[in-house]
TrEMBL record:
A GO MF label: transmembrane transporter activity
Pfam hit, one: BPD_transp_2
CDD domains membership: TM_PBP1_transp_TpRbsC_like
Annotated InterPro entries: ABC_transp_permease (IPR001851)
Compartments, as annotated in UniProt: Cell membrane
Domain of life of the native organism: Bacteria
An example Gene Ontology CC term for this record: plasma membrane
Membrane topology: Multi-pass membrane protein
Name used for this protein in its record: ABC transporter permease
Organism: Undibacterium parvum
Keywords for this protein: Cell membrane, Membrane, Transmembrane, Transmembrane helix
Length: 322
């Protein structure tokens, strides 16, 4: 009955699922800590996924694809910053508009360049492949240790290790650096920060730059690691799940990462229970199984939204006092 239900496989899949959300959530952390509502995580992720896949396919070099993804994601972030910071535009509308525009634009460009129904060709050798840790062959047959070292700790792409390495780095930046102090001050009380000599606009643009760089890794991971090609709307709501993880983590890096791992776990669980026969129930329809991460999202938001404390100036355009 449960012969295909393996905890070890779920844990490994959790590690592989989490980076998509981690990069995007940490990107949103910088933006929202500065006072900018970042609904455009989905759009930046999708733009980076397309450009990374297209450049990697054209050059047969995945790292050039990653760099190109960084460039386009930063460009989108700067456009978002121009609308939200310089022009004092509505941040929610700007984010949603970018998501819609990029969703259509990436499909049109993919169809124009590759003529494969809005997707890129399979990347083949241009993908980012898994890293085999030293000594894996020696311990592969040892019970538990072999699995733990070769599959749980090892056997992942470089972006997986980067995602987990960034957690303490972002924590240090937010709470122990002068930039982090300015960032939090601008997000909580921009007028007080301005009176203290902090440039609110410059700090917010720097936060958006960080958000653009981090979110690009999420898009690159989707196309260069998980799928091996770009497909229309392949971000599939992960940008919004990342925002949910941010609320779950109360805008704190370590807790946000735990929220990403939680969503990664339920995404892995969804795959494992598909096709499993449950006593008295039978097989659960695939469409219901695919709802699991989103149902968890609603539950998390309903249970934690009232308890989470967002930066006080989030969503509010800054108008310099005369």
């Amino acid at each position: 009955m449960f012969e295909d239900f393996h905890l070890a496989s779920i844990l490994v899949a959790t590690i592989r699922n989490a980076p998509v959300l981690m990069f995007a959530a940490l990107a949103g952390l910088f933006a929202e800590r500065s006072g900018i509502v970042d609904l455009a995580l989905e759009g930046k992720m999708l733009a980076a996924a397309f450009v990374s896949a297209a450049v990697a396919y054209a050059t047969q070099n995945p790292w050039l694809g990653v760099l190109a993804g960084v460039g386009i994601s930063v460009a989108v972030a700067m456009l978002q910053g121009f609308v939200s910071i310089t022009q004092k535009g509505n941040q929610l509308v700007a984010g949603i508009a970018l998501n819609i525009a990029i969703s259509g634009l990436t499909f049109v460009l993919a169809q124009f360049f590759f003529a494969q129904g809005g997707r890129t060709p399979d990347l083949g050798q241009a993908r980012l492949f898994d890293i085999v840790l030293p000594g894996s062959a020696l311990v592969a047959d040892i019970p538990f240790l072999g699995w733990f070292y070769t599959q749980f700790l090892g056997g992942h792409s470089a972006l997986v290790y980067l995602a987990f390495a960034l957690i303490p780095v972002v924590h240090w930046i937010i709470y122990h650096s002068s930039f982090g102090l300015r960032l939090r001050a601008v997000g909580e009380n921009p007028h007080a920060a301005d009176a203290a000599g902090v440039s609110v606009e410059a700090t917010r643009f720097m936060a958006m730059l960080c958000a653009g760089v981090l979110c690009s890794f999420s898009g690159a991971y989707l196309s260069l690691v998980q799928s091996g090609f770009f497909l229309r709307d392949m971000s599939a709501g992960n940008g919004y799940l990342a925002l949910t993880a941010l609320v779950f983590g109360n805008w704190r890096p370590l807790h946000t990462a735990l929220g990403c791992l939680m969503f990664g776990f339920f995404a892995a669980l969804q795959v494992q229970i598909e096709g499993v026969t449950f006593p008295g129930v039978g097989k659960i329809p695939g469409s219901l199984i695919q709802m699991i991460p989103y149902v968890i999202t609603v539950i998390v938001l309903a249970g934690l939204m009232a308890k989470s404390v967002a930066p006080k100036a989030i969503g509010l355009p800054f108008v310099k006092s005369r």
